[in-house]
Amino acid sequence: MDGAIIPPVIGSGCHGGRDTMIEAARAAGKSAAMDKLMQDYPRGPHDQPQSMCPAFGSLRVGLRMRRTATILSGSACCVYGLTFTSHFYGARRTVGYVPFNSETLVKGQLFEDIRDAVYETAKPADYDAVIVINLCVPTASGVPLDRLPKQIDGVRIIGIDVPGFGVPTHAEAKDVLTGAMLKYARTEAEQGPVARPRTQQDMPTVTMIGEFFPGDPPGVGALLAPMGMAVAPQLPSREWRDLYAALDCQVAAAAHPFYTATVREFKAAGRPVVGSAPVGLEGTAAWLDAIGAAANVAADKIDAAKARALPLIRAALDANPVHARITVSGYEGSELLVARLLIEAGAEVPYVGTACPRTEWSDADREWLVAHGAHVQYRASLEQDLAAMLDVRPDLAVGTTPLVQKAKELGIPALYFTNMVSARPLFGAAGAGALAGIVAAQIGSGGRFNRMVDFFQSVGAGETAGYGFNGVPKEPKGARERYRRAREAKSRANEAVGT
Ligand code: SF4
Q: What pTM, to 2 d.p., does this model score?
């Protein structure tokens, strides 16, 4: 048997038993892994996932890479949800899964099964890398992915722990895998020659860190061109060889500020890291200054870059003025950048909530927003976002699905952050025009929402939800006590696995 495996805890998972799970993981030999997660992703009010399973972030990064196989190790229900979500978002790749039961988990057979699956999958003709992701139960049980071989016939093997009780958001889970791959690639590059990128830049480059609208990186390239610089492949990357090109940059730009493990690798490679991003007029000017300074670009070239970009951004903002009060909340990591842009377009933004943690890479944005009257809430919980919306009563609420749902119930126009805002350019003149345009269109729908609220009144809400219900449901006599006893009996049995 490889590694110490201990049985999981009943009632564990997304919504219960977090401390017990952490304790179990530590007892099973995962103390170092848990310490690293706690250090990289400090916790806040919503220590448990309030949106999708965090592991989706890592899974998505793996599935979007060419010649990369991604294998999940976890409870079947978790894997079902993750697989469903990945295909909902158009993965078009196979999600690997190594199932387990009480016996294979407790006896350590699960690790053997994972190792077999990795050997079976790691064919150099098919793959550059095989990723194995431990979900909650295998992490808490100490399944030792660090004992997998580092490579098989030249195919890199990377095992990571991404438990919901250690990684608060799916955004940060993207960093767990990106950082692990970058560390592997940096070690390879330090040991000898590595593969060339498909397109080699002949200018010094900037690596943008974060998932962006596809038009944004080329747009950033146009901003950098007058300084004699270009963009490197962005991170998370689309294939393994891009990792080397990304590392080979002159400056790394932590535009999404929560990539702590990824930034650590750039620092280890001796690359300077710049925060914030080229959003709006002031944001773009400050970002070009910071990139130019980090790359030792001459002042006249930085001025030339600003002289080319800023008038276009000014014109885009003037063409799409936003006169409205807006709250912004989300879990993508770009919430502060979006709020900056909205304020520059003329909006009043009293509240910005992000599920991501505070890091030094968003300091400039936070300071700018606070100076412009916004309250910035890091690690914002859904409850905080809802309370802010109810307090502010905005003309438009930009937020997550449950927040938008609540806003619509109240007749407040609302916009999905992920589907609508993240699916548009954000940087430079293109970002200024696109964001202000969609926001202006939504604000005009306030009258329509109010008519809908009037029409439906309270039908389908609270106790009248569902067909045929129009009274307060009666609680069956003794039901609570029966369920309490049943739960206790189940807990005592302590044999089942997973949640
Ligand atoms: S892996 Fe953990 S956080 Fe994800 S769905 Fe399963 S129990 Fe929830």
A: 0.87
